[in-house]
Write a structure and sequence with these properties.
By secondary structure, this protein is mainly beta. It is built from two helices and 41 strands. It folds into four domains: about 110 residues, Immunoglobulin-like; about 100 residues, Immunoglobulins (Immunoglobulin-like), CATH 2.60.40.10; about 130 residues, Jelly Rolls (Sandwich), CATH 2.60.120; about 170 residues, Jelly Rolls (Sandwich). The strands form nine sheets. Strands 11, 12, 14, 16, 18 and 19 form a six-stranded mixed β-sheet that branches. The chain has a five-stranded mixed β-sheet with strand order 2-9-8-4-6.
């Protein structure tokens, strides 16, 4: 009985366990079905939205979205400058789709680009779909926001032009003008001295870009046409009734207009070999000097094929005064040892404005170099007539003393001589400015030497007086010029570096200008050139001072030459 009871209990327990197993198995299968993975799917994609004016919206694009086994609502959001909608009518930045709707059917989602007032240029955004139980999905969006504000665009806000002579034109610069959202034309106005053109041929101070092409790229040629010497600043203004004006700064430097005349051109001057130390010729120079402010003369030396003179020699250029028949010294220079003056771009430079009244029309010129061999130089002389506002429109000039043909035809120094150094000068009554113009250089190695070993008159430093009415009024100090720093320094093996008295080898002999404190109008005065006292002991040859002095008068009315009495 006891065994049967135990068997019955065991059988009952097996039945219960079997039932529990069946139930548990049934429960596991049911749970597996309920926890299937949640997901968010998107069917379709978005193309770039392209160009859209700010404060407006593009056409919409759409995709299908759907949830699967979502346990919470589907939240859809989009970043600034983009909008979303479920009906393509009502757009916003955030939407909620219920869990049941998202899980049961595809939802059509519309997206558009709506750039704000500041969303100009390339704009990117993000569309985000999320639900608590699913992996978040995101799509990148982009569009181009266009500014609708009327505006004038240019490629530069300033231009600097080449230095340009007055009454001529610079090369052009290109201004690119591009309007946006303009309904009317663009007016272009330029300051005086600047001008513009659409075709590069016809230039004006005012132009207009018509309304039909105001929003297109327009090429404008701009150039500098100075009306005065010196720095010029101006403005090119672009104006439109809808847009803010644009101002472009313009800058240029007006140069004086220069008329150049070449006279002697590579004229060979030498001694021997059928050459001469002197050449004389008549040239046609500038006819009207009324608006000429300055006249510059340039002397260019070139070595002939056989080479240059090995010595530093006296040389000058003269102009003929037709009234007196005399030759007036325009400029003096000393040639370099062994070489030319090619280290100077245009050669030796001289200001010869004082001779303005003689350097006009048919003009006789003479050049001379004191070369004593058949090498010599090839000499070119040219003149720049520089336009501008003269200090006075009328000039006149007269010779006072002229002992300047050769180095040794100067005034003997330190001995008795018969050279006339005393003159009487009468100034015209309408003179408004009077000055003396002197060129002086010493020659010779006469003794006694100075205490520092310098013989005269090439080396000895001296101060000479110009006496007016018997009193010392002006002084000429023949002191060192710094020969070693001469830019014409290719003179080896010549003795070019030691300082001479007021001149250097390979350099212009300086002009000494003495300006009277008054106009001297209608006055007469006595003139004397008084060399500093010194006595030549005649033990080492002679000393000379080649000296030329002219008196120059200027006026605002036509003026006659001063009268010089011997």
């Amino acid at each position: 009985m006891k065994i049967n009871y135990i068997r019955n209990v065991l059988s009952l327990m097996l039945i219960v366990l079997s039932l529990l197993f069946i139930v548990n198995c049934s429960s596991d299968e049911s749970s597996s079905d309920e926890v299937q993975a949640s997901s968010i799917s998107i069917t379709g994609n978005f193309l770039p939205f392209g160009e859209v004016n700010i404060m407006s919206s593009s056409a919409s694009q759409s995709v299908l979205v759907r949830g699967s086994n979502l346990s919470s609502n589907l939240e859809i959001s989009i970043t600034e400058n983009f909008e979303i909608s479920l009906d393509d009518i009502n757009f916003t930045n955030q939407l909620t789709v219920s869990r049941s709707d998202a899980n049961n059917a595809d939802q059509m989602l519309y997206v558009r680009f709506s750039p704000s007032a500041t969303a100009i240029g390339v704009i990117t955004g993000t569309l985000t779909l999320e639900s608590d139980s699913a992996t978040t999905q995101a799509l990148v969006l982009n569009g181009l926001g266009l500014d609708t504000t009327p505006v004038i665009n240019v490629n530069s806000l300033s231009f600097n032009f080449d230095d340009t002579p007055v009454s001529q034109q610079s090369s052009t610069v290109s201004l690119v003008v591009n309007g946006n959202n303009l309904a009317s034309g663009i007016d272009i106005n330029l300051s005086e001295g600047f001008e513009a053109s659409f075709d590069g041929n016809t230039f004006m101070n005012t132009l207009q870009i018509p309304s039909a092409t105001a929003n297109d790229e327009t090429l404008v040629y701009v150039r500098f046409s100075p009306i005065a010497v010196g720095a010029t600043t101006g403005m090119l203004s672009l104006a439109n009734t809808e847009a803010s004006s644009v101002d472009i700064a313009l800058n240029g430097l007006g140069l004086a207009l220069v008329h150049n005349y070449i006279t002697f051109n590579s004229e060979r001057l030498a001694f021997g070999g059928a050459y001469s130390q002197t050449a004389t010729q008549t040239f046609n120079l500038h006819d009207d000097v009324s608006n000429v402010e300055t006249i510059k003369m340039y002397v260019k030396l070139r070595c002939p094929s056989v080479g240059c003179d090995e010595w530093d020699v006296y040389a000058n250029v003269k102009v003929k005064d037709e009234a007196s028949g005399e030759l007036y010294e325009l400029g003096r220079y000393i040639t370099p040892y062994w070489n030319d003056n090619s280290q100077l771009d245009r050669g030796f430079e001289f200001d010869v404005t004082d001779f303005k009244s003689l350097l006009t029309g048919a003009t006789e010129l003479r050049i001379r170099t004191e070369c004593w061999n058949d090498r010599g130089y090839e000499v070119t002389v040219d003149f720049d007539y520089i336009e501008g506002t003269p200090d006075y429109p009328y000039y006149a000039i007269s010779r006072v003393i002229a002992y300047d043909d050769w180095s040794t035809s100067g005034v003997p120094y330190g001995i008795n001589h018969s050279f006339d150094l005393d003159k009487s000068v009468s100034i015209p009554s309408n003179s408004e400015s009077t000055h003396l113009r002197t060129i002086i250089s010493g020659w010779g190695h006469a003794t006694p030497n100075d205490a520092d070993g310098r013989p005269c008159a090439e080396w000895c430093y001296r101060t000479h007086d110009v006496k007016i009415n018997g009193a010392n009024m002006f002084q000429h100090n023949l002191s060192p010029l710094g020969c070693a720093s001469n830019p014409v320094n290719n003179q080896d093996p010549g003795n070019w570096q030691p300082d001479r008295a007021g001149w250097c080898p390979g350099m212009v002999v300086p002009v000494r200008t003495d300006q009277f404190g008054t106009s001297m109008a209608g006055n007469s005065f006595t003139f004397e050139y008084d060399y500093e006292d010194w006595v030549n002991n005649q033990s080492n040859g002679d000393a000379f001072y080649a000296t030329s002095t002219f008196v120059v008068v200027k006026s605002n009315t036509p003026i006659n030459k001063p009268v010089v009495t011997e």
